[in-house]
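The passage that follows is intended for readers who have already worked through the single-chain material. We present the inputs for a multi-component assembly, then the predicted structure in tokenized form, and finally a short commentary. You are encouraged to pause after the input and sketch how you expect the pieces to fit together before reading on.
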Amino acid sequence: MPVEIERKFLVDKTLWGKLEKPAGNLFRQGYLHADPEKTIRVRVTDTTGFITIKGATSGTSRLEYEYEIPKKEAEELLDNFAENGLTKFRYFMPFQGKTWEVDEFLAENEGLMIAEIELHSEDETFEKPAWIGAEVTGQKKYYNSQLSVNPYKNW
Amino acid sequence: MPVEIERKFLVDKTLWGKLEKPAGNLFRQGYLHADPEKTIRVRVTDTTGFITIKGATSGTSRLEYEYEIPKKEAEELLDNFAENGLTKFRYFMPFQGKTWEVDEFLAENEGLMIAEIELHSEDETFEKPAWIGAEVTGQKKYYNSQLSVNPYKNW
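Having made your guess, compare it with the prediction:
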């Protein structure tokens, strides 16, 4: 079964601001269903759409099923069926053989940045760039599904 | 936006039993989310899988988005994420230029048969085969999502 293993970290915004980096991709996403055992997310990127079903997190792992769908239909699903959502720029940052996914949240979550790294096993080791801050893996308030209902500006 | 327009009828089981018909396709399905405004269904057929998002029914119409997914993943989604489900044989029955979809329910819904016809508009006219019985369009207890929680044997 497809399992996502990932760790999450805050980002040092001062160091991040000094980096040369590629343009971010604008992501808009919302949830058709969200509870601790299951989230059903629809995401719209610059070019396409996705529907993603994720299970409960156990440590750093969770079941994840993702399907690409037409962008226009993903937009309609968000408009018709998602109660909460968020927007963010995503940056893909290669470092020492891994790619970090860095999210710069917008709107109600402006000011928050989170970096994620996907691993092949829970005990895989990796190098951290200088701009990686404190680890927040497993902290529920940093889940995107949580940020869509209790955004950063309310913390 | 993709809208499904459909009408539902009971089936005269005596007349149905005398028909020559193709073999039925075994469908297993369950719900990742079900409320009056939105259902998220996963279906496994003989050959493949589907994830389908449907909106609230208004008259004979509802929004419907359907995506084909690998059969094995559909089975895993049902096993991991669906709380209720049902199984049925589906028959595709051509008649006067339209195709009726006839469901013969199994297990907890054994004894129930429903025929559906998809229309291009709410007022489209069509011919009914002799084995079509009373119309049940819009009757909630006949929704598949309802049959998965309150099956026919409990009525």
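Commentary: Strands of chain B lie at 3-11, 25-35, 38-44, 49-55, 61-69, 85-95, 98-105, 113-118, 132-135. Chain B has a mean pLDDT of 96. How closely did your sketch match?
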